[in-house]
Model the fold of this input.
Amino acid sequence: DAMVIQNPRYQVTQFGKPVTLSCSQTLNHNVMYWYQQKSSQAPKLLFHYYDKDFNNEADTPDNFQSRRPNTSFCFLDIRSPGLGDAAMYLCATGQPGAKYFGPGTRLLVL
Amino acid sequence: GEDVEQSLFLSVREGDSSVINCTYTDSSSTYLYWYKQEPGAGLQLLTYIFSNMDMKQDQRLTVLLNKKDKHLSLRIADTQTGDSAIYFCAERGDNQGGKLIFGQGTELSVKP
Done:
């Protein structure tokens, strides 16, 4: 059974048009993460939440924001997507040991 | 800063063993991970090892950790064509809010 669910799996947006990606988890973990993975690169952490405490990586662009309304859900908002934001966006959760990733949302910016 | 390095490519024949190597720099790493990523898919957690362990075995997978040398390896026994994928090594430091630092991934190609 899927533990981390991401919707949609594919998202097409226009340059500058805001887009929201969603993630939910069934593990009831207090930590959630958003990673960005560009083609042929390693995943790069954008944000993480510990409960409602939000932690922004120093090099995450201001264009990216996140919301976590409850333990199960987390959203990634991209306010004005540029061509360079086309990537796979991966949500993850997990205890200090195992960390589970969702299937990802592939974002295409036209 | 923290760094994780892996070789980029490995090619093996079906039925052989594969060994994927990884080195890391953060001596405070508490957990180390191996993930598998197939084309267009997310990251599948294969296994992880706590830093006070030397070895962990799970079916065809064997993880070896040399903490002194900061070296981690993943051995896949009897490699199959379905094992072809990119394998990422990652480490979790003690003071990073659980953040994972990933290597650049090793592309494993299994030839019949």
